[in-house]
Amino acid sequence: MILTTLFRYTAVTLSASLFVMTAHSAVAANVKITPVGSHDGEFCVFDRAMILEDPDGTRILYDAGRTVAGADDPRLGKIDVILVSHMHGDHVGDRHIKQVNEGECGKPVVSVTATPNTSTVNIALAKKAVILTGSEMPSFFTGKLKALGGDPAASQLVRFGGSKEIGGVTFTTVPAVHSNGIVGAMIDGELGHMLDAAGLTAYAGPPTGYVLTFSNGLVVYLSGDTGITAEQESVVHEHYGAKLAVINIGDTYTTGPKEAAYVINEMVEPTSVIPSHANEAATKGGKVIAGTRTDTFIKASQVPVYLPLSGRTMAFDNSGKCVTGC
Description:
20 strands; 8-stranded mixed β-sheet
């Protein structure tokens, strides 16, 4: 009787332990995404930056832009890889906020100048991170890193159709339809002044989007600034099978909210989507404001839409389903 009871107790204890371990493993296998915006708990006009974390701990900063408060921003933590979709200042970081919540959501105070280095380079130097880009952008970052005493090899290339693995994440670039010039302020010196005076920018090749395949199998599409492009269906959907998309909805400069919803509904067809680059104060108190572009996009999308509220970490499983922080 005593042996039977002991056996049953041990079996129940082991089963409970296995359940806890399985549940913990399931949580650990999710990809975490944390928006890094200008105002805590909101989705604001300059918000582009996101940190994506693989289950193995590899941390990726996507488009630092103007809302990361410099390389010392405590929200960054460890950064292993920095992605830059293109060289416009609101993505690579020509200037940035001094501190979080300064100014209004629709007009943050971006008082710190980051040129000619760019925020991307400053963060890469401080974090000893790899800057991974496509097109002709790597040579620009190589030159900056070398001039500032960093490691030129930390600027690395991955072009359309190729891939590169860092940590548990496989990266590739995909086409984006936009412009991608380097302004004179990022070059400095006589050449920079001549470009500005002529109203021209330096060649940086075509802009890019990214497809990331995480160690848990989740495939994420980061659109960058783009319009509608055939590759969103033929490459992002049909070849890579993206299950989570981060898409720009700001209109005029990128896809508008209805066009972005068309891309999501008919072309990429992910499980979930996160809007970005809305160019507006999209929320108040963490709730979407009626009549905004973000509101229009949510209503037009046929898949769950998750707002990139600054500082709120969301976790996604390998199917692209949001499981926590949703």
